[in-house]
Amino acid sequence: MDQRPQGCFSVKLAYRSIQEIPTSDARGVNWQKVWKLRIHERLKMMLWRVSSNLLPTMDNLEQRMGIADTVCVCCNGEKESVVQLFFQCAMTRAIWFGSNCYYRSELLNINSCEDFVKVVSGDLDFLEHAPLRIAITLEARWNLRNQILHNKELKVNLVSVIGNMELMILEHIRSKKGDGKNHL
Ligand SMILES: [Zn+2]
């Protein structure tokens, strides 16, 4: 059985998630605040998909499709899940700490999707441009994970990954300033 995630799986989930986007949810989270963030719609979707555990991570594929190999492809360590991949994996921690904010992802203290929801819907003043930085980091991390998944021989250049991430953050900040909107 081909154990690679199927493209249609995530597209279908993303489509469903768009239809189901609430203004608040059972966890008492006011999603309006997240939808009003002044970041690209694509990045809001990334926050939403991580918060709602909608990405085809290995643990989700195990549950839905019965795949057997669920180990994180980036560190060959623990079972891949949203929390493990985006906040606990050694490669993720290196990306966070290697970025211009020198942040330690463990400081976010995220052990469940609910914890992440609290972070994105809370006061994001612990980090400059926090929503933008978090969303772009998650997106870059997911893209890198997919590259490694599909090319096990890939030589990962974290300096380049982080450099591209910082460039993207700068571009978003500049484009918003160009709009006369200097608050992200
Ligand atoms: Zn890992």
From TrEMBL:
It comes from the Eukaryota. Residues 9-96 form the Reverse transcriptase zinc-binding domain. This is Reverse transcriptase zinc-binding domain-containing protein.
